[in-house]
Each structure stands twice: as C-alpha cells, then as structure tokens.
Amino acid sequence: MIGYIVRRLIQAVLVTLLVLAGVFLLVHLLPGGPARAILGPRANSEQIASFNAQYGLDKPLPLQFVTLVGNYLRGQFGDSYQLNQSVGGIISENLPKSLLLVGLGYGIAIIVAIPLGIYQAVRRNRIDDYVLTGASFIFYSMPPFWLGILLIGIFSYTLHLLPPEGPQGELGDFPAQWTSLILPVTTLALITIASFSRYMRSSMLENMVQDYVRTARAKGASSSRVLFVHVLRNALIPIITLIGLSVGYIFSGALITEVLFNYPGLGYVFQQAALKEDYPVVFGILVLAAFGTIVGNLLADIMYAATDPRVRFSSR
Amino acid sequence: MTIGPVPPESVLGGAPIEVAHLDAPAEVQDVVPAFQTRGIWRLALDVFVQNRLAVIGVVILVLMTLFCFIGPFIYQTDQVDTNLNNQFLAPGVGHPLGTDALGFDLVGRLMVGGQTSIEVGFAAALIATTFGVLYGAISGYFGGWIDSVMMRVVDAVLALPGIFLLLFLAKAFAPVTLFLLTIVVAIVAWLVPARLVRAEALTLRTREYVQAVRMMGGSGWRIVVRHIVPNTVGTIVVNATFQVADAILLVAALSFLGLGIPPPATNWGGMLSDGVNYFADGYWWLVYPAGAAIVLTVVAINFIGDALRDALEVRLQKR
Questions:
Q1: Chain A touched by B173 (CB under 8 Å)
Q2: Entry pTM
Q3: Interior/surface letters A266-296, b for 16+ CB within 10 angstroms, e for the rest
C-alpha cells in the first residue's frame, strides 16, 4: 500500500512538473513571444527589451524555467497586467466564491444522485426507471450554458421569480442575495445529477449480480440489508473515486456557469483575463486548476487502492 | 457534456460512457474466412438498425446536415450584408424564425451556423481520433519507458481543464478561424482515444499473431498500423462518434465564451451567445432555435454512439 502511494506521488509530482513545463512552453509559443503579445504590434525593440529585462525574460530558458517553478512553488504567481493586483491576491479573493458555488452544486448533486441511482437500479427496466434514465440522458447531453439559458428564460424572464444574474460583490454580501445563487447552483447540480446518477445506477446493477449477493441472501440476510449494507458499500467505491476524478470537469463546468451568470468566481476571472490577454492571471489560474485536478486524481487513486486491494497489486 | 478529463476506464467498472473489454475480436478476424467476418459485421448492423433510438439519431443527423448544406440553395437568404431596417423582426411571414440584431434571417443563419458547427465537429473529431489512436497504439505497443513518458504527457494535458486550455489556446493564437478552431478542439480531445487505445494495445501486444508478425520480421510501425490499430476499431468507432458530439459542444462553448468566428460567419454557439445579450428584451427567437439545434444534433449523435457500442458489443458476444 505504502509503495503504491509513493509511486503515485512520484507520478503526480512528475506530471505537475510537466504541466509547468507545458505552461512555460506556451508562454514562449505565443506569437512573437510574451512581450510582443502583451505590448502589442506597435511596441519598438527598446520597449520589448526593457519589458524582457523587467520580467526576467532575457535570461537563458532553463534558468527562467527554474525561476518559474521556484516562484510557483512559493505561491508567487506574479502580478496582473490589467488589474493593479497580484495574481495570488486575485485567486484568494475569488477562489472562495467559486468553492461556494461548486460546493453547493456538487453537494446537492451527490445528495440527490446517490438515492436516485439506487432507486433506478432497484426499479430497473420499469417505467419509472425509463423516465428517469431518459431525463438524465437529456440533461447529460445538454451543454451547461444551454441548461442555464433555459432556466433563466423560464424562471427569470417568463415567471419573474429569480434574478438572471449570480450574486455580486464580496463573499460577505452573498447571503443577502441568496435568491441569485439558486439558478447557478441548480444549473451545476442538474447536470451533475444526470451524470452521477447514471454511474450510480450502473454501479449498483453491476454489484447486484455478484456472487457475494447470493451468498448473503443464502445465509439469510434480508433483501434490504443486502441492498443497503452489502451492495451499497461496494457500489459507492467507484462513485467516491469518480468525484475525485471529476475535479477538472468541475472546473470547466464552473467556468461556463460563472460566465453565464456573471458570477464573480475564478472561472469568470479566468475568462476575462484570457480575453484581455492578462497572461500572469491566466497562467496562475491554469496552474492552480491543473494542481487541483492532479491532487483530486491522486486522492481518488489512493482511495480506490485503499478500498479495493486488487488495484495495489496490479501495478502499472 | 464531457468536457475535461474522463476518468480512466479501469476505475469505473461498468461505467456507461466507456467501452470495456473490446479486447478480443483479433484472432477471430485474422483466422476466420472473409465471408464469416462480414457476417459478424452484418450482425452488428442488424443490432444497430433494431435500435429505434439509433435510427432516430441517424435520421435527425441526416436531416440536420441536409438542412445546413442543401437548405441554403432552396431557402436563399442574404447572410453577408446587414440590414438594420429588419432588426429583431418577430417570427412571421417572410422570416419563419424572425431576424437577429443585424437583420439576418434566422433560418438562414441557422444553416450557415450549422455548417460551421458540423464541419468543425467532424474535422476535429477526425484529427483527434487519428492522432490519439496512433499515439495510444504506439505507447501501448512499445510499453516500458516510452509508454511511461508518453502517458505522463497525456496526464499533464488532461490535468488542464479542457475549457481553460481551449480558451487560452484560441486566444493566444487568435484570430479565430475555422482551421484554428478545429486544431484547438482536437488538441483538447485527442487524449481520450489515446488512453482507450493504449489500454487495448497493452493486451493486444501479447497476442500470438503480433508475436508471429514480429518473428517474421515485421517492423514495429507495421505492427502498430496493420495489426494493433485495426483490432481496436470497435473502440475507435464508438469513441469517434462521441468525439463529434463533444467537438460540437466545445466549439459552441468556446463561441459562447467570446471566442467565436468573426461575423458574418457564425456557428450555433455564437448565435446563442449573441442572442443571450438580447434575451432580457424578450427576443426569445434569438436563443431557443440555436440552442435546440445544438442539443438535437448532440443527442442524435449520442444515440448513434450508444447504439454502435451495443452493436459492437453484441458482435463480440456472438463471436
């Protein structure tokens, strides 16, 4: 077990370094280099030289890479070109807002999707299972922005019940605007419920035909005990890891939801920064998102190995 | 929509979107006479046709393609010159779906936008699948440190959430053209086929017929292209179908985020994002038709993909 964790840790560190190298490469792939991209086509060579000197871009590439890694490891992401703020400051200001949105959306999704999946598995191939499967198929095929637009159309512009925008301002101002949280959270939750309940349903079905179920029944366990104690515990394993593995997906879904609802989270800031070519902000958030994804995947793998001993022995 | 990393197939067991255990049609196809092989494919076709959803999917997709590519010859509209006198006309006589902020007829706009969405969707899926399949087959066949390095690269790109990478790439290499859109979507999308095919190549490389080719002096390249890749074709076909749907969604998402193709060209996502700006004013016809077109096309493709997977799995079961 420890050997497995150590191996996965080393892999995760390697992948993190690769991501940093890739990001670094991207900076230098920018047409005409970063200085040209930021200062614009009219900048003369002296301006470019002074920009390069200011940001250390005139040093040899390997040295620049080591500096970049060092800075990122110490949490120094540089300063925004557009906003008079450090990237670290921007992140610490907006990350909690994103976490609130994602936490509520996914929290609700998990609470709903797991019982839903169990129900569908128990009622498999009956009319209610078909209806729920059809519904989840539709939500699953919907791009998040389309679902959000539909919700805005129905609840804001037709029924005039809820505001079409997310809450604005600081995190502290959010509780006062709680109604404006409902639509963004619902958008995220509905799409996630659709995919998680599909996994939960198939995970339950797969476990319900296992030999241990027959054994448990044969020794006299009641069918509800078999379902909720034996099957459920095994069926939850892939779902727990799925949550760890979908961190990257969570970031993407949150970005689109935030942009649609003008929700001032990290995804919205990233989109604005990308459109304005504010590269320090773009890279800071990109690296943070990658780091989150890698940690999520690592935790998922470790959790999976901890719960299923077969994984540890079939090393890659 | 599956934007971003897809969990590795090993962890998910009977997960609905992955193709599991397609590892063995290999020796059968190589050994049995050709007519019998065709019979197996015929069986897959039968299963596919029996699936009503799949037939509906094919019909929707064909109609949609005809609408977008043949439609403009029958229903002719001016999609180049703006006409502000015709701004925001409600659906009615002359403009069945109304007009947009620049006076473009929206039925014609749907056709033009659909051409872009469908072209980019198919082209990006083709590029992503071709590259991903070769990458995965090479990685899985050669194994060892080559495999480790190649797969860590995949992990690293997968670690960057798809939409973030897409947004950055499209902006960094702007101006956005059809070609650029296709390439950036492919860059984000090739990872999944690479992983799927690699997993299959890992088992295929130990097959007797691969060893036989090696013994006869076949080069590694020949084994990969002529023996490994053809034997993963089931996985590839199913995944490529889903790739088209994903690519259409990614292009739409990118346009929605402000990096679409500059006017007068457009795509469904761009129409949607333009329309949302006027949504509050009650111009619903700028929003719903474009969104419906995206969802309809994507659902149709997903139906086809699901049925293909069932059909090919049956093909394996009957083996």
A1: yes
A2: 0.81
A3: bbbbbbbbbeebbbbbbbbbbbbbbbbbbeb
